[in-house]
């Protein structure tokens, strides 16, 4: 089981995300200032759930 921020490929690769999905969280707010508050904020990005499903699929042995 994976619980994280992410989207299917069709929703991840859209014009609204041309700058990427990397972001920081501090005190329940988001920002994109990666080099401010070093060690004092969480850094995350959205993952591609379509790729995750594709590359973790177990081949049918039957």
UniProtKB/TrEMBL annotation:
Q: Which InterPro entries match?
A: NDUFAF7 (IPR003788), NDUFAF7_sf (IPR038375), SAM-dependent_MTases_sf (IPR029063)
Gene3D superfamilies, per database record: 3.40.50.12710
Q: Which SUPFAM superfamilies match?
A: S-adenosyl-L-methionine-dependent methyltransferases
GO: which molecular function terms? methyltransferase activity
Q: Which residue ranges traverse the bilayer?
A: none
Look up keyword Cell inner membrane and say if it applies: no
Keyword Transferase on entry: yes
One Pfam family for this entry, by name?
A: Methyltransf_28
Q: What are the UniProt keywords, alphabetically?
A: Methyltransferase, Transferase
One GO biological-process annotation of the entry reads: methylation
Q: What is this protein called?
A: Putative S-adenosyl-L-methionine-dependent methyltransferase
> Which organism does this record belong to?
Spirosoma endophyticum
